[in-house]
Amino acid sequence: DVDATAYDVSGWINADNAAALEFVLSDNAGEIEDLQAAVSANVALDAWLEANNASAGDVIAIGVAAEGSLAGFTN
């Protein structure tokens, strides 16, 4: 069981910061692809993402939420 929260960053994007996000995603594409491959290889994380209407291919970052659980950021 994965103790995590999914955050869809697209809800945080507006006209003022959309270009900045696209630049960061493009500039870090290789690292994001490596992260997505690692997440996809983790059966528990992959299942958790699917249960939250996402996939490893949507993941752009992983972090730790304030209470210590996993935070998955998708786009």
Molecular structure report:
This protein has helices spanning 18-27, 29-41, 43-51; strands spanning 4-8, 59-64, 70-74. By secondary structure, the chain is of the alpha+beta class. It has a three-stranded mixed beta sheet.
Rg over CA atoms:
13 Å
Q: Give the ordered list of helices and strands.
A: EHHHEE
Strand order of the largest sheet: 1-3-2
How many beta-strand runs? 3
- Structural category: alpha+beta
Number of helices: 3
Mean pLDDT: 93
Spans where pLDDT lies below 50 across 5 or more residues: none
The largest sheet, given as strand count, sense and whether it forms a barrel, is: 3 strands, mixed
How much helix is in the residues?
Answer: 40-55%
Write out key terms for the chains shown.
alpha+beta, 3 helices, 3 strands
Briefly, what is this?
The chain is of the alpha+beta class.
Secondary-structure topology with pairs:
Layout: E1 4-8, H1 18-27, H2 29-41, H3 43-51, E2 59-64, E3 70-74
Parallel strand pairs: 1-3
Antiparallel strand pairs: 2-3
